Amino acid sequence: MTITETLSKNRGELEVKLRNLLAKPVFLIEMDAFALPCGCKGATINTRGLQYDDLEIFEDHIVKYLKDTSENLEIEPSFLFARLVPGTAEIASLNSRVLCNRCYMDFARGSGKKPRPDIYILNFIRRE
Amino acid sequence: MKLYAPHVGHLEGLEELLNGSKDIYGIYMAGTPDYVGTGRTNLSAPGLEDIAEQTEYAHEKGVKMEIVLNSSCMGGIHLTPEGYNRISWYFKQLNNIGIDSITVAEPYFVEMLAKEYDMEVVVSVLSFVDSPQKAEFYEELGADTIVIDPAVNRDFDKLEAIRDTVSTGLKLLVNEGCLYQCPFRYAHFNFFSHANGPGPKLSVLDDYYYYKCLSLRISDPQQLIKSPWIRPEDLKEYKHITDIFKIGGRTHFPNWILNNVQAYANESYDGNLMDLLDCPKDLKDLFYIPNKELDGAISQWKQCTKVCNKCGYCNRLAEKIIKVYSTEGCENVLKPLKENGGK
Residue of A17, B204, B205, B226 with fewest CB within 10 Å of its CB? Predict the structure, then answer.
């Protein structure tokens, strides 16, 4: 399977899982794999119709789905987060990111679920 | 019938549109945002030379050219001496080019253009003219044509009262898919006006209003039905109000615009209504609204009191006909709304 086919299949599967979980037609408008100049790499899933309340209530389920999707894309699910529209109920995207050493330190120094107003950490595996 | 079609703003696009259809009466496009912005997103910002070239081409084809400068908020800059001089200079250049009409939302510009220039002055949909009183006010300022706020597209008493009150031309925007009575309407257009205007440019995190707009419809799809679009088949119901209709969609490709022109010129479309709506285009890959199954709904809307919690017609209609695109493997399939969590 090509990388685009893998992305397409996983976008659809995750969308179906979220719809079944939340009983509403959540829309995953785009799934992208990325590699940044700093060394970070991963996948971004732009969401529409997914709300902060959904995340709070179904966090365990959503984390599991996102982990599975990440692994299917061969991305180690070490850092999973949602990007919020600050001050609102809107979730702009779900993300799986393998942090480079520099970005890892930025997050590792902090604590709590929301190190920035627009980031809600779903899973963060600290390095030894 | 006079159909106004959107245009992204470059000559190649204009050639494609005007060679693709004989049914376009007028073209409208944004100008450069350096003087007056627009209340919507644009894909290009034609300079004066581009506008002159495209106006000449449109006129050769017998088509009117309209420039849209419908910023809903100028931040007061137009009332400063420097601002006035800059904007006045730009209007003069457009006048010299020979554009046929200019669409503005700012009341000050309506009066200024009416007093000092020869161009037809069109009051933008972003002036929110939704009553005979407002229409009369703009007529007295010097408006030649008023684009009526789509919020009253299904309120025939209001439409007829506006028609009877003013002698200006009236134009109806047929395919705006904005939320009915949208709470973000003013704020969103003001935001766009600054983002797409003379500056200073904003460094914005996200378009909050757009996210919210989509979320509201995804969680409550009856909002798609309540939006005040006019189906191609229903144009005949409006011809005693006006014969001028405007298709929205400056950020779409020519083939999308031509599909709309064909649908509205033929007054018929057999497909997904979402294909025709300017906004929200993201949702056309989520919802399928079979246009032909909306036959007859206009009869209900013509007598609608807009008290949704007592009526429930749009909700029932949404549940009956809207389908949701879902994925099975890599294939897209259509499923009934209820199976996908419709209210």
Answer: B204
Chain A residue numbers with beta carbons less than 8 Å from the beta carbon of B206 are 85, 90, 92
A9/B218 Cβ within 8 A: no
Alpha-carbon span B178 to B220, nearest angstrom: 14
Give the chain A residue whose CA is nearest to the CA of B218. Answer: A49
Structural domains in chain A (count): 1
Question: Given phi > 0 = left and psi -120 to 50 = alpha, else beta, which region is B75?
Answer: left
Strands (E), B164-321: 169-173, 244-246, 287-288
C-alpha pair distances (Å), A8 with each of A16, A21, A73, A120: 13, 20, 11, 25
- Whether pTM > 0.95 for this model: the answer is no
- B193: tokens are 């006006």
Contact A48 B342 (CB under 8 A): no
| A25 → closest Cβ in B206, B286, B328 | B286
Residue B14 clears pLDDT 70, i.e. is over it: yes
Task: Give helix B81-97 / helix B48-60 axis angle, nearest 10°.
Answer: 30
Given this model, what pLDDT does residue B341 score? 52
| pLDDT for B40 | 81
Q: Compute CA distances B259 → B252, B286, B293, whole Å.
A: 11, 20, 19
Q: How many residues in total does chain A contain?
A: 128
Q: Which structural domain range is residue A65 located in?
A: 3-124
- Give tens-digit pLDDT for B37-47: 888 877 778 99
How close is the nearest chain A Cα to the Cα of B199, in Å? 24
